[in-house]
Amino acid sequence: QVQLVESGGGLVQAGGSLRLSCAVSGGTIRGYSMGWFRQAPGKDREFVAAISWIGVSRYWADSVKGRFTISRDNAKNMVALQMNSLKPEDTAVYYCAAAFGASAQAMIDMRGINYWGQGTQVTVSS
Fold it and tell me: CB under 8 Å to 60, separation ≥6 — which residues?
């Protein structure tokens, strides 16, 4: 059974940075598009960023474009989300997701997702 475990969340001041990691166990991430999503209190889960399985295609939500970077290391079975210039509105639980055989673009609409992590809390203070 494939499991995704996020880490790296925490409390940071506005303007600061955090790096989230997603470690995958129980299988290889080769062949999976990987993505990050977030859910703020009282709001629906939303797309943040996605990357194709060979890392060529990447997509970001408009709200994070230019501030967040998604990367992956297939050899280490890990995906990362570097978050810079954080804002209070970035506060949310961040989830890692894996979609086998689906395009990274499809993850924008949460299509084709096979696995979700449990999430890691990110809190940005003003």
Answer: 48, 49, 68, 70
